[in-house]
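Page 47, continued from p. 46.
Same chain as before, 157 aa.
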Amino acid sequence: MRTIHLIAITAALVAGCGGAYRELPRWRFTQPAETERGCVLGRGFIRMSGKTGVGVTLELRSRGDCTVRVARAELVLEGRRAPATLPAPLALKGRSLVYVWLPFEFDNERAWNEGRRAGTFEIDLEVAGAPTPTWRIAADHRREHRYVPGSDPRTRW
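Result:
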């Protein structure tokens, strides 16, 4: 009797704590997201993609004392622009490594429903007080398999 209860409890825990892979829309870079601008090396990562926007993290690595300011960051979607909230300027000392969060807030669900699924992230950096060429990163919004904790493994979209 005890074994049956243990099996039932284990099955309930696995079903409640388990998850499934689902196809969910997500922004992805379609080209390498790396740049070199003066005394800083940059790399971008899409960290969040949801109904109300996209979140990009910039990894900035200095090769010496260096000041960096994100002067402009926008996602361009078929002529429409979604600006990011910009961080404060950074003073990097020596060989530093910092991560900068860029939230791009817009109606991402509406863009998906309207078929606007390809865009370009445009980022302007000022390095050591001087503007640099615009860093452009092509991206698209597509479905991908993602693990969703706590979801029913029998349900798929």
